[in-house]
Design brief:
The protein is 28% helix and 15% strand. The chain has helices at residues 38-47, 96-115, 130-140, 190-202, 217-229; strands at residues 11-13, 22-27, 54-58, 123-128, 148-152, 177-182, 207-212.
Amino acid sequence: MPTALVRENPLVLSPTSGQHTATVIFIHGFGDSGHGWASAVEHIRRRHDRLDDVKFILPHAPNIPLSMASGRHPDEVLTSSPGRLSSLSACQGEDISGVLETQSYIHSLIKTELEAGISSERIILGGFSQGGAISIFSGLTAPNKLGGIVALSCWVLLHKEFRDYIPDEDLNKDTPIFMGHGDQDWRLEYQVAIDSAELLEKAGYNITFHRYRRVVVPPVYSFLSNTLLGESGILFAGRS
């Protein structure tokens, strides 16, 4: 049975226009909280007022056991291991019950937005590091078709068996997935992101991959513009 966790209510940044037409749920990474991404959201809003109708939900994860080594706290997974994680095959010992509990929580946030009248295809799920990993897993296993998935500096959770958790309808088979990885990421080796993107591509998912240097806001905004505003944007796919 999935592990029961006590959670803070997520940080909610309401639409500044007063009209709510879409929602972005963005999940933080190791050792962080939803508050750690509030300034990034405000930065995007200041520069791009076309997102004024979008609600941003930033969940807090006080202790999500998504460790890559059994029994270890998630914040210790990579920082206390020698060197960097160098390949997707090294991702072992993930806490399945913790993954499924977190998936259930994210799906409940999506359900709340649907009940508020937001179309599932106007909901974007995203995250960074640990949060990016859970956004891929929760997005692909969602019982509703989402507008898109943003996964930054992360990997595919339960990569050997994740397809066992995909609903038969596979509603998000064609959902746009933006994967980005920083070339100065010291926690996750770049190859882990490549392995993850290729795994999803081979499974038939709609992947766009971008390697970025320090700043990832422009390509992420471009993705949001494409999926929520119907605007054509430049989505980079370089892997060199």
